[in-house]
Design a protein that fits this description.
The protein is mainly alpha-helical. The protein contains six helices and no strands.
Amino acid sequence: MNATIGAAHIKAPHELYCRLTGQTLHLGYERERQWYELLRAGFTLEDLRRVILYLQREIREGRRNVGALKLSNLLQLDRFEEDLSIRRVRLQAPPPPSVAAAVPHFRSLNAKSNDSVASNIYASLRAASAKRTTT
């Protein structure tokens, strides 16, 4: 085991997982190894908390299956990383641009183009009208 990741470091995320999910699971060798790998990959207790709360919300809203919270699924590094990333993306989207700031510029650009469009439409209607009267 890495000198910086000891038994206490491994026990903390397991206890947090059990507390947040309401489960009581034995911390055996295989689970210790999975927690160790998660911590060694650089994930933190806060990352774990965020992913668990995200998955619980997704399950409540019917977008995820309860199996997503199974410890054996949660501790797969690629899935954990993806869930954490999705959680960040969905909750930290950039604010929409201010519409008020864009409207005056849009109107000034369209004023000239609207005049030329109207002139073109008027010319087309006159030409169509002239054709009808000659035939």
